[in-house]
Design brief:
It contains five helices and five strands, in the order E-H-E-H-E-H-E-H-E-H. With about 170 residues, the chain is α/β, with parallel strands linked by helices. It has a single domain, classed as Rossmann fold. Helix 1 links the parallel strand 1 and strand 2. The protein is globular.
């Protein structure tokens, strides 16, 4: 699969963009609460940096909130299962409260909320699955993908976001 984007300023896809260069025209908030090797969250920065998309990886709600405060986010990939705090040990008998829904609410309150791709854990209960889907869409999700997400599916979703929200062009600098 080829990820196609058009940029008003040509970017050589064979040349990596230098850190802080003008070639980075689109910022992607990338959250992932999983543990799988070769997950989309590990692969996307390697692929997207070459075409001018800077990925800000966050593995907790706190980290995602910091990126949102610090950077203009053009697209967000929000894993509903990320924890609120970075790798803080859980006390025995307690269950971590996922921070993904809180991050969605934070993005929704921005003056210009970015299009959001939601990654949800696989659901066994059809009623819970439908409820989670409805909540994510109500909170502004552009699309919802079930974990584990193949890299090809994530790239297709990102391509649809750029096509629809940015008309196949990078946002203005």
């Amino acid at each position: 699969m080829q990820f196609r984007l058009h940029s008003p300023d040509p970017v050589d896809p064979a040349a990596p963009a230098a850190e802080g260069s003008a070639a980075h025209r689109l910022n992607l908030l990338l959250t992932y609460g999983g543990w799988r090797e070769h997950a989309f969250a590990d692969q996307l920065p390697l692929i997207l940096d070459r075409i001018g998309i800077r990925c800000y990886r966050a593995e907790s709600g706190d980290e995602a909130s910091e990126v949102i405060r610090r950077e203009h986010v053009h697209i967000a990939v929000i894993d509903l299962s990320i924890p609120m705090h970075p790798t803080r040990a859980q006390q025995p008998g307690t269950r971590a409260v996922p921070a993904g829904p809180r991050v969605l609410q934070l993005l929704k309150r921005l003056d210009q909320p970015p299009p959001t791709i939601v990654v949800r854990p696989r659901q066994v209960d059809p009623a819970e699955s439908a409820r989670n889907l409805a909540e994510a869409l109500r909170d502004g999700a552009f699309t919802v993908l079930d974990d584990p997400v193949p890299i090809e599916s994530m790239l297709q979703a990102l391509e649809r976001v750029v096509r629809r929200h940015y008309r196949d062009h990078w946002p203005a600098a």
